[in-house]
Amino acid sequence: MATPRVFTDQPLAAGAEVGLESGPSHHLLKVLRLKPGAGLGLFNGRGGSFAAVLAGSRGQEARVAVGEFDPADHESPLAIELAIGVSRGERMDWVVQKAVELGVGAIRPLITERTEVRLAGERRDKKLGHWRQIAIAACEQCGRNRLPDIHPPQPLADWLPAAAGLRLVLAPGATTALAGIDVSAPDAVTLLIGPEGGLSAAEIDAAVAAGFQAVGLGPRVLRTETAPLAALAICQARWGDFR
Fold this sequence. Notes:
This protein is of the alpha/beta class. The chain folds into 2 domains: 5-70, CATH 2.40.240.20; 79-239, Alpha/beta knot (3-Layer(aba) Sandwich). It is 28% helix and 26% strand. The chain has 6 helices and 12 strands. It has helices at residues 22-31, 91-101, 121-142, 156-159, 201-209, 227-239, and strands spanning 5-7, 17-19, 39-43, 49-58, 61-70, 79-85, 106-111, 149-150, 154-155, 166-170, 188-193, 213-215. The strands form 2 sheets. Strands 6, 7, 8, 9, 10, 11 and 12 form a 7-stranded parallel sheet that branches. Strands 1-3-4-5-2 form a 5-stranded mixed sheet. Strand 7, helix 3 (121-142) and strand 8 (149-150) form a beta-alpha-beta unit. Helix 2 (91-101) runs parallel beside helix 3 (121-142). The two termini are 27 Å apart.
């Protein structure tokens, strides 16, 4: 079995012993059924990771002895923000998980004209926490040691003026292909993608007026959970760390 990697939201230092939160404690003790002395990796999203050993348990809490620090982060040199209309069901979960694996630096859920999911108050906070847990699990799996930012959902119109970097909006019928865009080595990219049904023509026009360039991915219509992954892979291959 591969050495498990665990996220903990607390300060870490070599030589310390820490008690893990309920989620990772349950995973190590009840799901993986690790015994004292088992090795694992530990990170807290602040950069780098630590070798660690399961020291034992205190009730339901896993106690971990923190070992040597490894500064490697495995982050892409290209800062990518994925701004995407919130979609229904498990589609958004899939996008968050795979976008993290593909090296995205931030995910910004947007409420657009065609967004059918209504998020407010407690439901919004619960959904945001759910997406963050998906991002944590994806980091544990893929080896990232820094958590991407998962922003609270907000209306597209409120966010557009704040978008930065090379701004690209996926638009049906765009004459410029993302893979062929004439740009060399941007430091940051913002990708804007709609929910099911895509962005409206008025929303695409508003994005272009805000400095976005309309780009396409080819002749086929991709689902809202497929388009961002294809776009992220292209960006990483052109300007990031895909080889």
